[in-house]
Structure formats: structure tokens, C-alpha cells
Amino acid sequence: MSHSSIYLHIPFCRRRCGYCDFNTFAGLSRLIPQYVDALSQEVRWAGRQSDPGTSVHTLFFGGGTPSLLTPMQMDQILKTIRESFQLLEDAEISMEANPGTVTEESINGFVEAGVNRFSFGMQSAHPEDLRILDRKHTFSDVLQAVGYCQKAGVKHINLDLIFGIPGQTLQRFQSSLALAAASGVDHLSLYSLTIEEGTPMAHWANRGLIDFPDDDLAAEMYEFAEDYLAAQGFEQYEISNWARGNSGRCSHNLQYWEYEPYFGFGAGAHGFINGTRTENVHSVFDYLQRMSDGREGQFPFSPAALAGSLLSKWDQMQEMMMVGLRMTAEGVSAKRFKNRFGSDLEVIFADQLRHLLREGLIEWINVPERAVRLTKRGKLLGNRVFMEFVGNEVPAGLQ
Ligand code: SF4
């Protein structure tokens, strides 16, 4: 039986950055103690409802800013998880953190509680990029935070970078990337900036105060990163992710891309359990209310669930292709697909694969096993590939 994963959402930030459209709230930090209690309660609820002995091999605290929790609060949640599930001894326990919100003492406390992987939102090393992104930290804060982790014996550290920032030149991106790669971390995530409607950044761009990102320049940056990071010993294993060796890969995110189950706890968290997608209420106030008003929930929908849907076999087949093709090295294994659904992916997606092969966006590989994956061109046009697996008619043989 495969192991499960747990995602825990911490929807608090000191302030809201101009480009951010995540489910997070500024000015509500006073609610963190109550929220930690509610989160622990949701974990306990799921533990009671799950199959006895459900084993968990990865935990991920995302946000928001999980580093706004105290180590004691982190310890409370981790203890509850250990009491409620069979958390593997060598489980990967990741937390996102903002450079500038951690101290040597807090990192030591998180590590003592059990965290063994940190992910810092560096975004850029350049002050002008950070100013446009409305981020208040500096690159020195990033190096200091990485140093605290290394001193505490943490082996796995990620830095998030953003490219395609308005005004960012290729050279500026290259220097940020070089500084990140040389910082001693074993994982880098690179995301292209998208300006989301309703954010302050969209307002600035619509009023002409900043430029919209230049797609061609962003593609040039991405292609540069592919070559540069390979030369620095980082292997790309997902469209946006690079790691030094297999041990540097993020097992939690691989759980999503390999289309394996995960619980989602906290306000706005999503889960995928027993072929069912769950989504919790987004507001912190609604979440606290739901977890305290005595409602029952019906597994896998916790008392905080807002919505959910049981996916048909066909939906799951399409989703497995969409998320699996993000894995740029391994792709989607024909054998895993067959084991999971009892059907051959070459047969079930014959039309889609033919189109994409003809356009040079995907390729078959035979080592380490037969699988379909994106080509170099396919990585640049990933969304075009993924859309091929959305909303197709159910094939006759599956009805
Ligand atoms: S710190 Fe991260 S989650 Fe919080 S507002 Fe900024 S971008 Fe959003």
C-alpha cells in the first residue's frame, strides 16, 4: 500500500505582497493560537476516520507564512499528527518560511520539533526586483536563514525564485540564479511571474505603472536556467523544480505529481483521498467556526470542508496525465498507469498522444522504464500539453 501525505495550510502573513493571490491574511496573527488548536482538531478527526494504521511519509506546512508559528505551536501540531497517524520515522517534514521571519533560535526550535526541510521564498537577489515584488527581505536575510538551517544540521533546503519580473533583465536574473545556486542549498524552484487579477500588482500594471511580464524574455530566462543549473549539478525533475541528486528532491511534491493520496488540513487546504478531492473553507474565521460548532463531517470531508468531488475513473486518468507530465525526467510510466487503472495509456490516450508527438511536445523513453514525458519544447509549452488532457469525452470502452 502506498503511503499518504499531509499538507497543512498556515494562512497568516505579516503583510500582503503586491503580487500574491494565495489564501492568506495579514493582521490576523492574534488568531494563530486558536488556529493551531483547530488544525490539531482537524488532524485528530481525520486520524480517527482513516483506515487504522494509515501511514504518512511526508508533511508540508505551506502558506501564508508557516514561520509565523512558534516552535511550540509546530511541536503541538506534529505531536498531534504522530498520535493520529503512523508517521514514518524518516518522514520528510517541510515548512515554508520567509527570510526575515526566522532567527537562529526559531530554526533550532522547528528542527527540534521535527522539521527537516525548509523552503525559503527568496524570489530574487536583486533589491529592485524585490521592491517590484513588494517583498521586504534582502538577499542577506536569505543567506542568514540558510546558514541557521545548515548550522542546525538541516540537509534539505529549497529557495524559491521568480523570473519574468517587470523590469528584470536577463543579466539580473542570471546573477540571482547564480547566487541561489552557490548558496549551498540542494533544491531550487523557479516560477514565472503571473499577474493575477485583483492583486495590487495587476492594478499597477493596468495603470501603466509597471510593465506586464515579457513572455519571450521569460522563456529566455527559463532556457538559460535549464542549461546553467545542469552545469551546476542540479537535475531538473519537474517543470519548475531542480535538485542536487535524488535525495534533494521534494518527496511531498512528488506525491502530487505521482498522483498519490494526500490530506489537506487548514483554511483553504485541498486534499485527495480515496479518489475524492476535498477543499476546505477559505476564511480563517469560517474555519475556526466550523471546527468548533460541533458539526460531524463525513470522511474524507472534514467539518471544515467547503466542497469536494468523487472523481470518475476517466477524470483520474486525465488528471494523472496532467500532473504526471510535469515530471520532466521520469514522465508518466506506462506500467504505473496500467497498474493503477488496468488500461494501456497508449490505447486510452491514442489521439492526444499522437497530436502531441506530431507537434514535438512529448516523447517516449524506455529507460528506466517505458514512459511518456515532455520534450524541451514541451516544457516551454507545458500548459498546451496539459490542456490536451482536460474535458475529453469518455472513451467508449470506459463507459
Ligand atoms: S509572504 Fe508569500 S504568502 Fe505571504 S503575502 Fe507574500 S507572497 Fe503571499
What would you say about this model in short?
Helices cover 39% and strands 22% of the residues.
Structural summary, described in words:
The chain is of the alpha/beta class and 399 residues long. It has 2 domains: 4-256, TIM Barrel, CATH 3.20.20; 329-392, Arc Repressor Mutant, subunit A (Orthogonal Bundle), CATH 1.10.10. 39% of the residues lie in helices and 22% in strands. The protein is built from 16 helices and 17 strands. The protein has helices at 32-49, 71-84, 104-113, 127-132, 139-151, 170-181, 200-206, 215-231, 251-257, 284-292, 313-324, 334-341, 345-348, 350-358, 376-380, 382-387; strands at 4-10, 12-13, 25-26, 55-63, 86-97, 117-123, 156-163, 187-192, 235-238, 241-243, 262-265, 270-273, 276-280, 305-310, 332-333, 362-365, 371-374. Strands 9-10-8-7-6-5-4-1-11 form a 9-stranded mixed beta sheet, with helices on both faces. A 3-stranded antiparallel beta sheet has the order 12-13-14, with no helix packed on it. Strands 15-17-16 form a 3-stranded antiparallel beta sheet. Strand 5 (86-97), helix 3 and strand 6 (117-123) form a beta-alpha-beta unit. The model has no long low-confidence stretch (mean pLDDT 96). It binds iron/sulfur cluster. Residues 13, 16-17, 20, 22, 24, 63-65, 98, 121 line the site of iron/sulfur cluster (SF4).
Fourth-level CATH superfamily of the largest domain: Aldolase class I
Biggest sheet: strands, sense, closure?
A: 9 strands, mixed
Share of β-strand residues: 15-25%
Give the beta-strand count.
17
Report mean pLDDT, rounded to a whole number. Answer: 96
| Radius of gyration from the alpha-carbon trace, in angstroms | 21 Å
Tally of distinct domains: 2
Instruction: List the ions, cofactors and other small molecules found in this model.
Output: iron/sulfur cluster
Strand adjacency order, main sheet: 9-10-8-7-6-5-4-1-11
Class by alpha and beta content: alpha/beta
State the separation between the terminal residues, measured CA to CA: 28 Å
Number of contiguous helices: 16
Helix content: 25-40%
The CATH class of the largest domain, by name, is Alpha Beta
Low-confidence residue ranges: none
Q: Return the CATH architecture of the largest domain.
A: Alpha-Beta Barrel
| CATH topology category name of the largest domain | TIM Barrel
From the spread of the alpha carbons, the general shape counts as globular
